[in-house]
Amino acid sequence: MNSPLISVVLPVYNAELYITETINSIINQTYTNFELIIINDGSNDNSEGCILQFQDKRIKYFKNEKNLKLIQTLNLGLSLAKGKYIARIDADDIALPKRFEKQIDFLEKNSEYGIVGSFAETFGSENKKLTFVQEDVDIRHAFLTHNPFVHSSVMIRNQTLTENKLSFDLTQLHVEDYALWIEILNFSKGKILPEILIKYRIHENQISLVHNNTQVINTEKIQKKYLLSLLPEVKEVDLVFDIFHNQKTTIPSVILFLKFIKSIELENTNALNQKLTKTLIKNAKNKIIRAEKITFKELLNLFKYRNEFTLKQKLVFLTKLYR
């Protein structure tokens, strides 16, 4: 029997309320050449009964002897995958019928891409359309503030993982996908298809809500590491991070930042770094404009970068002047 083109990795832990609907959304895809790897991670509800009711030969069912948690279970799924492509789906989400068809078509035509996602639609306790940037350079830029890939929308080129020995990092608790997508883009390009191919369920037990504090802390660590990889000249990474994220900084720190940015030769950087530095300069300007007051000394320092500001912005600075 020929190997399936797609391996779908579906970890399950206590998902009896949703898993039947999720499996149905996969086996009813218009593209049919796939294997569905379901890994029961020690569920103590009726998840197994729900899974075993399906007789589809494309389903490969595995059961962990004990609860290994999500990251180890995901890596087990990657190791079991035989397909050219690996598709992810969570046990409470729903893939729309043409998801695989659309993503396979893109990846087969664009060999330089290692990961593709899509727009999504939330349902459950919240209903809205989730749209994201679409092109590779914009995705890389977005990673500095958020993860633009809905995990259940992602399809990965298996070769990108195996050749570069990539997997989910056990230390990146609750942000393991964020970290891996950034790693994949070190070796390939990324794309988000501008159409809704996944329905993302919102409910009170999902990881992003239950473990929000840990997720926030680890997300910031990932973003700072990524920022340093793009701008290795940065010495005060916390300062630049705060400016990029529009967090509170002082006028002197913004001036220090402008001095650093001025030292970067934009014409010698790639499209991503040009986009990055322009965003940082814009954010720094906005911080000064939003400031309640500026000292005379700060004003003089700002005017050392007078070419960076419009006449209107300079007038705004003057209105904030005090001695």
Largest sheet: 9 strands, mixed
Radius of gyration: 23 Å
N- and C-termini, Cα separation: 81 Å
Structure annotation, total helices? 14
**Structural class, please?**
alpha/beta
Low-confidence residue ranges: none
Element-level helix/strand string:
EHEHEHEEHEEHEHHEHHHHHEHHE
Q: Give the proportion of residues in helices.
A: 40-55%
Count of beta strands: 11
What proportion of the residues form beta strands (DSSP E)?
15-25%
Using the alpha-carbon principal axes, give the shape. Answer: elongated
Mean pLDDT: 88
Secondary structure topology:
Layout: E1 6-12, H1 19-27, E2 34-40, H2 47-52, E3 59-63, H3 69-80, E4 85-88, E5 94-95, H4 99-109, E6 113-124, E7 129-130, H5 136-142, E8 155-157, H6 158-163, H7 176-184, E9 189-202, H8 207-210, H9 212-230, H10 237-244, H11 251-262, H12 271-290, E10 294-295, H13 296-303, H14 311-319, E11 321-322
Parallel strand pairs: 1-2, 1-4, 2-3, 6-9, 10-11
Antiparallel strand pairs: 4-8, 5-9, 6-7, 6-8
Helix pairs in contact: 5-12, 11-12
